[in-house]
Amino acid sequence: MMSKIRKMQDSWVAKSIFILTALSFMSLFGISGYINSAGENRNVIKVDNIELSQGEISYLFDKELNSARKMFGDNLDINDEVRNTLLLSIVQREVANAIIQVTAQQNDIVIGDDLIRKIIYSQSEFMDANGRFDRNRFNMMLNATGWSEQDYVKALRLDIERQMLVQNPARRINVPAFLTDLLGKIENQERIFSYVKIVPSQMKTTRQISNDELEQYYQDFSDRFMAPEKRDISYIEISTDEIAHQYQPSDAEIEAYYKQHADLFETPAKRKVLQMAFNDEDTAQKALNELKNGADFYQVAKSLAQQSEQDTNLGSVSKDMLLEEIADEVFSAPLNTIVGPIHSEFGWHIAKVISETKATKMEAGKARQKAADSIKKEKAYDISYEFSNQIEDKIGAGATFENLAKELNLSIFNISGLTEDGHYANNKTLSSDIVDAAFSYNVGEISQIIETDTGYALVKVNKIYDSHLLPLNDVKSKIIELWTANERDAMALELTNDVMNELDNGENIQDVAGRLGLKLYKSKPIKKSESFEMLPSSQIVALFQEGLNVPKLIEINGSKIIAVTSEMVDYKKKLTDQEKADIRNQVRRELVTEVSDTLIDGFAENYDVRVKYKLLGLAD
Fold first, then answer.
1. Higher-scoring residue by pLDDT: 248, 537
2. Sign of the C-alpha dihedral, residues 123, 129, 135, 140?
């Protein structure tokens, strides 16, 4: 397999090798190299010479989890099934990545730092208004995604390797034109489905729960009838802002801050500027001549620079917002005069200043107050840290909860019946930070000072009500509800089996429905891309794979749907050119995915690939 793939590579890889430059991307940006701090973590993935440790997989898992929580909120339920699915997808992805990296090594494919740098510098989302790479925009992207710079560069390098080794050859696959009509008929075929619905909640129970069953359910499902542990607590809170405002900066600090951040207290002069840019000086000179002869600036920009009004009007800009080559001349020119042509690395520029806003300076008293507030905010962390240490020392010295509250001039909040999910009286809730502390200490203990979203808090546990099994009479209605639901599920399952058995034996669904007292439904004619009864697309595709009158059991939202194809409606119309193109593109995408997977599998056959699923908490 590998020898065949290497022959393929001769045409599209051999001439695409990049030489590693001496100057690394990390050095360019002044960032130290990534240090693997896996420590004693055992390796769990091995593809030849590439190994990944438990710690590295855990890091990737946490990143994925944080991304999911940003999307779905902190209430995202991470159960074992979700955890295992997420972890397995990460493992599969990293194995594929490692296979691609090893294959790149084997074929002497080196993605140089010069290429990486050029790609990042050319990405529009990292450019400023003047089309230059903006380091701040790059950092904002990293912060928003939670990636480190090393992660981004590594991922970019891997993407290029993947494109060269997998995506480029896979994309060469085309769908033969003679298949389009056939595929179109298959894709546009319509079917009519006859089906019955069996809903457990609609089953009618024919008997009552017995006393023996009541006792048995009480024992078998005792974990459902437990009163949760509850706690009575007291807590006090103090915000970071309140702590910071206790600090009063000196006159010298305020003066130094003012000098270092003068731009915060001044609004620079701004000018409304029109600008057009050209690739060559001759065209720029021609534009200047037309302007001197009275031509409209916007019309000249449109005809000679191919610029829209939006591109031409820079709006009100300060001097530091303009290219260095033209900034001085634009800000020294009289209003309504033409400036240029001026040459820069981006071409030849002509500008016109049409209005001006003078620079302003904040009044001294307001500037002083703003400087003091800014210093307090900057000092907030240090002050808060010192404050928390002082509180810890007082607790260690035996200070009582009440004395601490009095000394800090803070109110004590008393909460009764707090549960571990944060709820208490009238279904109110407390922050998770306070709840975690409340359930981490014993009666009479004062927590360590804890950080909250707004500052700090102290918690004292006053009383603990242990979790306990509620009396049978108190939960009798819940037991009956549970028993009834199970009875209905059993009845629904039995009825479902009866329907399926009769249909499998060749009975007509209409006759079976009538005999068993079920309502027969009929869908409208639908395509594979449509649905009925809100069935997911995967179930519709599965139904379309069955022949006429072949039963298919579908479970959705606790209900059971048994459906058969009762009629097939062939597509008679001639496909339009757009429909043909859409079909070819769809099939091509599916084929490209399959070929990509096959290529990676083919690469893997040549390597020692191992995954220690047990060490990852996954079954072999």
1. 537
2. negative
